[in-house]
Write a structure and sequence with these properties.
This is SPOR domain-containing protein. The chain has 65 residues and is α+β, with helices and mostly antiparallel strands. 38% of the residues lie in helices and 20% in strands. The protein is elongated and about 45 Å long.
């Protein structure tokens, strides 16, 4: 059994490009996303989420604020 899905848009971390449907194994890509444009922004989306989580962790370490 393979872990590759045949639908959705993905961002391949190995090839640094957007893929649609079956492509590289899921463990090598981010997604699925609803459209090609969103998949193309996968790294930016992840960076933004990481920044939000870091900020939240800092607030919690400072007593909640």
């Amino acid at each position: 059994m393979t872990d590759v899905q045949d639908d959705g848009w993905w961002y391949c971390l190995t090839h640094n490009r957007v893929e649609h449907g079956a492509g590289c194994p899921n463990r090598e890509r981010m997604g699925p996303y609803e459209d090609e444009a969103t998949a193309a922004r996968a790294l930016s989306i992840a960076a933004g989420r990481n920044e939000e989580w870091d900020t939240q962790d800092e607030r919690e370490a400072d007593g909640g604020w």
